[in-house]
Amino acid sequence: MSFSPEVLIVLFIGVVFGCIIGALPGLGTCVAIVVCLPFTLQLEPISAIALLMGVYGSSIYGGSISAVLINTPGTPQSAATGMDGYPMAKKGEAPQALGWVTTASIVGGLLSCIALMVAAPQLAQLSLKYGGPLEITGLICMGLACISSLSEGNQIKGILMGLGGLLLATIGNDPVSGEMRFLFGTENLAGGISLMPVVIGIFPLAEVFVRIHELRAQKTATPVRCKKIIFPKLSAWKGRITNLFRSSFIGIGLGILPGVGATASTFVSYTTAKKLSPRGDRFGKGEPDGLIAAEASNNAITGGALIPTLALGIPGEPATALMLASMTLHGIVPGVRLMADNPTVVYSCFILLIIANILLIPASYIVVRLFGKIINFPPPVLLGLIVICSLVGVYIPSGVFFDVPVALVIGLVAFGMRLYDFPITPLLIGYVLGPQLEFNMSQAAIYKGNMSLVHYIGSSPLAVVLFAIAAMFLLMPIFKSFLQTTKK
Amino acid sequence: MKKLFLISIIMLLAAGSCFAGDYPNRSITLVIPFGAGGETDIVARVLAKEMGKVLDVTVAPKNIVGAAGMNGCKAVVAAKPDGYTLGVIPSAPLVMHPHMRKLPYNPLESFQFIGRASYDPYLVLVRKDAKWNNLDEMIADMKANPGKYHWASAGAGSVPYFAGKDLFKSFDLDVVHVPFKGDAGALQAMAAKRVDVYTTTAGVLTKHDLKALAILAPESSAKLPEIPSVTKSGKEVFYSQFVTLVAPKDIPENIKVTLEKTLKTVTAYQGFVSDLEKLGMTPAYLDADQARSFIESEYARNATTIKALLEKK
């Protein structure tokens, strides 16, 4: 197994490219990989894998750069990062925020690579065993219950938005029976509303509308300036290391379970950190703990999602499905045989991903400089750029023009929500998790058959634990505010 | 001066696109009605690469996803019939979906078929360590234990869904259906022992620990001669995955002939064959007319089976 310079160069190009595409609002991981696919066909297998690993690992990180600097997460997974990253940037601490983000990402990514190297087959078996519909339903309930914690102080509106997201996800066809719902007479909605228009409507487009509104109301927006990254000193890490490791493990664990995805993992990690951190009440106002929690888990997902992809041939998330396709075309057949027949490939993937994570450091310097200049553009130019990237990002993955007006409508609705102080993230959570929830619940119902509900849930201890945690996430904040109001 | 400059630019651009040169003289778009990374997508990308070499222009794959392939098909139907927009369409949108719901186009009438590129019959798959060694054993066991076993489909309305439903209805078995989202989910559940049977093409045999009990075709295939046909157990349950190259209706005859020849060359080319083999698929070229009769007969056959299966609801 030789690493020619070509492989490393391709890896570095992949990392920078992924970072940039991830950072451009609206584009994101899947677009980055799809754009690379034709190139991978021309490259040697190892170089092709290098390109894919580079792009995959860095695009998620890139999404966080724009989340912090312009409050428009470039990828859905970075939504949680912006919650603390942007407030920090507004306080003038953008370089430090990016420092936290970068370090947490790299550590999360490296930890997941180590997990991949050390325990891929075992973790894959675990994912099979515990990836059943009941357990995943429990996990998703946990993810949905995060809504309650994320909208503390504003619970009713938060839960309403979450429910709204769930409802929005029902448009299209029922996953079990295939019946069409809520088409409103047009077949354009037959496939449901895809993820990209919703993510782009909620984040970049709504942000653009809010800024336009602020400009016209002549509110002086606090300028965000960022010339470089300032990495946190070692002393600043005191008391935060547990958070870092825990968030990484949440990312690895949830990445293994196919379908749950990066978005859910970042919110679960964020909420857990909020509850367990001594600085929990500063979350949302610019607390590094929140950044660490979000970023460590969302980069840790990369290694986690590769585990079922490589070891079982079953993609852990959409981006890995594309990687799987690319590898197949190169004659690398992921699956139960891969470890046995082609161990060099497997270890190359791990090592390339590790190097990709490390290469994030130089790449981040380049990209942050670039973005630091871009955010200094006059608002009309910057906002125009964001709108163009966003709409292109909506169109590229699906090729369906209808998605573009949908994104704009959702953007306007999200703008209205922000004006009236409705938290917007629960909408995303409800929307992303809704289809999975319905699907897994329906499957669980099939397996339950004629068993009593208690008996069925009791048959899986893990599910019981997950539902219990979900109940806690959901009810504790409500309980807390109830106690506070009665104390008054 | 400025006006003259502008006008000449415009004319040059316009002229560029109606070059009376030979076909093809610019890049061709190959519409793929399914997502990047899926089976259809990979075959299409391989086709695009090889066709590009033969025709000496770029053939650019373009994914237009949604509504189980309907969006992509619509795009091809609506495209200009000048040979610069083609589509790669698998079996389901052509011969199965029209019987399930009203489509805004008629697959038999809205497309000009250039040819068929691949054909793979479905297999009845169980885990390698399952106790059944042939289809008859499985049928007997299921008859003795109604409701005990589960079968997977790739979702309501997918080809594995109809294949499974037809199979179990033909043999009069009570097996619980569990829908999944696509192959990946079903295969994972198979590995995790949450379902016992799945139907799909032979491509999965190399990647996963599965064995095939029967092939859902009139005869065993040359590639897998040891797998008996389902007819040996007494019923005709035929399902397959095939991939066709289509163009909008009414493309000029000479362009159609060029494309036909290209497809024939590509599907015979060793690189294409081995690429497809890596995916576990089989090149199976049929020219435009043969492809049309093949599709029409599949369409008619599916009309009766699907209507019957859907009625049971």
Task: For this entry, give a set of tags.
heterodimer; A: mainly alpha; two-stranded antiparallel sheet; 18 helices; B: 313 residues; D-Maltodextrin-Binding Protein, domain 2; six-stranded mixed sheet; three-stranded antiparallel sheet; 11 helices
Coarse morphology of chain A:
globular
What percentage of residues of chain B falls in helices of 4 or more residues? 40-55%
Largest sheet of chain B: 6 strands, mixed
Strand order of the largest sheet of chain B: 2-1-3-10-4-11
First CA to last CA of chain A: what distance?
Answer: 68 Å
**Oligomeric status of the shown chains?**
heterodimer
User: Which H/E pattern describes the elements of chain B?
Assistant: HEHEHEHHEEHEHEHEEEHHEH
Annotated CATH topology of the largest domain in chain B: D-Maltodextrin-Binding Protein, domain 2
End-to-end gap of chain B = 73 Å
Overview of this protein structure:
The complex is a heterodimer of chains A (488) and B (313). By secondary structure, chain A is mostly helical. Chain A has helices at 5-23, 29-42, 45-70, 79-130, 133-150, 155-169, 195-216, 241-256, 261-276, 288-312, 318-329, 338-341, 343-374, 379-398, 403-419, 425-448, 453-458, 461-487; strands spanning 172-173, 180-181. Chain A has one domain (5-487). Chain A contains 18 helices and two strands. With 313 residues, chain B is an alpha/beta fold. Chain B has two domains: 27-119 and 241-311, D-Maltodextrin-Binding Protein, domain 2; 123-233, D-Maltodextrin-Binding Protein, domain 2 (3-Layer(aba) Sandwich). In chain B, 42% of the residues lie in helices and 20% in strands. Chain B contains eleven helices and eleven strands. In chain B, helix 2 (39-55) links the parallel strand 1 (28-32) and strand 2. In chain B, helix 2 packs antiparallel against helix 10 (270-278). The longest helix of chain B is centred in the C-terminal third of the chain and has 24 residues, at 288-311. The model of chain B has no long low-confidence stretch (mean pLDDT 86). The interface between A and B is large, with 51 and 48 residues.
